[in-house]
Design goal:
This protein is of the alpha+beta class. The protein is built from four helices and seven strands. The protein has one domain (about 1-185): Hypothetical upf0131 protein ytfp (Roll).
Length: about 190
C-alpha cells in the first residue's frame, strides 16, 4: 500500500514504512483551508493545516510512503486516528507520479483529504488572515508556525521545481507580520 502525504506527513509520518518517493498528484491543489483544534490548534484558537482542493490542471507535490506486511495495519490504524478521527479527513485513492526519471507507471496511493462537509473545514481566506491565525495557534503537535515553515522547507528542499503560490504567499505574509509582533512584545516588556 502507498500513502501520499502533502502536509506534515512529508517530514513526520509517524509510522514505519518500507520506502518513500517524492512526487506529485494531478487534479488537486494544496490549501490551508482545514481547521485544526488538536494537533496545531485548540478549540479556542484553531490552527490552519492543509487539505486538497479538486482543481483541473493543478498539481500537488509531496511524498508517498510504501507500507508492507505488518506495517499496513499499524500505519492505517495510526493514520485513521491522526487524520480522520482527530483531523476530519476522508480517504481517497489517487495516482501518484514519482519524480524519478526512470519511474514507469503512476502508483495508486491512499490520500487523506478534508472536505467542506467536515465540521473543522474553514475554507478560503486571504494569505494575511491565514498567517495571522497561524501565528496565534498551537496544539499537541506543536505551534502552527512550525507546521507552515516545515512544509515550506520540505517543498524547497525536496521539490524545488514545484510552484506552490498559496503556500509561499502565506509564508511571506507570516514573515511580514512577525517583526511587528516581536516589536510589540519587546515594547510591552520595556514598559
Amino acid at each position: 500500500v502507498w500513502i501520499f502525504g502533502y502536509g506534515s506527513l512529508g517530514w513526520r509520518p509517524g509510522f514505519e514504512f518500507t520506502s518513500r518517493k517524492v512526487g506529485f498528484i494531478r487534479g488537486y491543489s494544496r490549501r490551508f483551508w482545514q481547521g485544526d483544534t488538536f494537533h496545531r490548534g485548540s478549540e479556542k484558537t484553531p490552527g490552519r493545516v492543509v487539505t486538497l482542493l479538486e482543481e483541473c490542471g493543478a498539481c500537488t507535490w509531496g511524498v508517498a510512503y510504501e507500507v508492507r506486511g505488518e506495517q499496513i495495519a499499524a500505519s492505517l490504524e495510526y493514520l485513521n486516528m491522526r487524520e480522520a478521527v482527530l483531523g476530519g479527513y476522508d480517504t481517497k485513492l489517487v495516482k501518484f507520479h514519482p519524480q524519478e526519471k526512470d519511474a514507469e507507471e503512476p502508483i495508486l496511493a491512499l490520500v487523506y483529504i478534508a472536505t467542506p462537509q467536515n465540521p473543522s473545514y474553514l475554507g478560503p481566506a486571504s494569505e494575511e488572515d491565514i498567517a495571522a491565525q497561524i501565528i496565534v495557534s498551537s496544539g499537541c503537535a506543536g505551534h502552527n508556525i512550525e507546521y507552515l515553515l516545515r512544509l515550506a522547507d520540505f517543498m524547497r528542499y525536496f521539490c524545488p521545481q514545484a510552484e506552490d503560490k498559496h503556500l509561499f504567499s502565506i509564508e511571506e505574509a507570516l514573515i511580514s507580520i512577525l517583526p511587528c509582533l516581536y516589536y510589540t512584545e519587546e515594547s510591552l516588556e520595556e514598559t
